[in-house]
Amino acid sequence: MATLRYIGKRKRSRPSERLNGLPANDSTILRPAGGVLHCLPMTIRRALITGITGQDGSYLADLLLEKDYEVHGMVRRSSTENFERIAHLTHRVTLHQADLLDQLSIVDLLKKVRPQEIYNLAAQSFVPTSWVQPVLTGEFTALGVTRMLDAIRLVDPEVRFYQASSSEMFGKVLETPQTEKTPFYPRSPYGVAKAYGHFITVNYRESYNLFAASGILFNHESPRRGKEFVTRKISHAVAQIKLGLAKELRLGNLDAERDWGYAGDYVRAMWMMLQQPKADDFVIATGESHSVRQFCEIAFSHVGLDWRKHVAVDETFLRPAEVEKLRGDSSKARRVLGWKPEASFDALVRMMVDADLKRCAHS
After folding, report:
1. Percent residues over pLDDT 90 in the chain
2. Could you tell me whether strands 18-19 and 160-166 are parallel, antiparallel, or unpaired per DSSP bridges?
3. pLDDT of residue 276 exceeding 90
């Protein structure tokens, strides 16, 4: 297992010196009534992020570095490397090669890094691909969670673990809005795999007394979102059409509704979950749902265009089993964590369009 970038040596606490998953001399965490978190930094804490090169991983790395963490990232060995989202951070984070498909590589990595916090964000996360590669999706998104949890159990059970669960677990929703107690009814191999990852996290928490928390995050977007996702597909197409580089945008179900938030807001919730005295599960959502059609309307109108003149429905983009509407209730997170979203839906759409306008103009 090779380290891609190494930055200095820092004193590492032994597991025996830890208290509640943190080194005994690390930050003292105070949480008074009202759900506000206060950290009193004494020495640097160490975090490991799987999926650090993705949208959420890059924003989380930004956040943790702002809080003076020592940040390590797990990346898969590949003939082509895509570090675009963390290009501004490569001199401040340490990257290590390991794989969620390889239990031994995870164990070795935990022994080497000795993190106090682990954020498991790595997955095969594109829903349409999960129908094309359902077995691989299960290996990464479901069994990969088990491998990580078991590595924690074997190496250092005092580690605080965050699992990235998903609103896709609700699928064919049985109630609206969806809460932590809403039954799951996943409608894709991805949703099924995420449900497994969620329940195995709960199981290890209850069976081995691990500090293992799950964030049931509803859709969260940003300018760093991959272009295969519908929100970024729209914002990128709007920029291209505005600049005369394209004429048409082809989409699937325009009536599908999602609870869309800003990824930068949602990684704050991830961090907050691991600062609690007890591990738990939290829905993270805005509480508002909007359709793909509404996203198009705002995006095109932001650049002075009529979306109806440029958007065409293409049945090849329809899912085998559609999730029609998702809307989350994050009351528990707001009450216990003191978390709330800051960016509005309109601001999020405009932010993404503006970023793609700048990218397309420069390219």
Report:
1. 75
2. unpaired
3. yes
Judged on CB neighbours under 10 Å (0-12, 13-18, 19+), 342 is exposed
Q: Which of 70, 117, 158, 168 is catalytic?
A: 168
Rounded Cα distance between 334 and 75, Å, is 32
pTM: 0.85
pLDDT at 14 over 60: no
C-alpha to C-alpha distance for 204 and 190, rounded to whole angstroms: 21
pLDDT one-digit tens code per residue, 141-175:
999 999 999 999 999 999 999 999 999 999 999 99
Active site residue 248: no
13, 58, 105, 166: which is the annotated catalytic residue?
166
- Clarify whether 13 is annotated catalytic: no
Assess whether 69 carries a catalytic annotation. no
Reading the block at residue 143, the tokens are: 């069994």
Q: Which of 122, 60, 117 is nearest to 93 (CA)?
A: 60
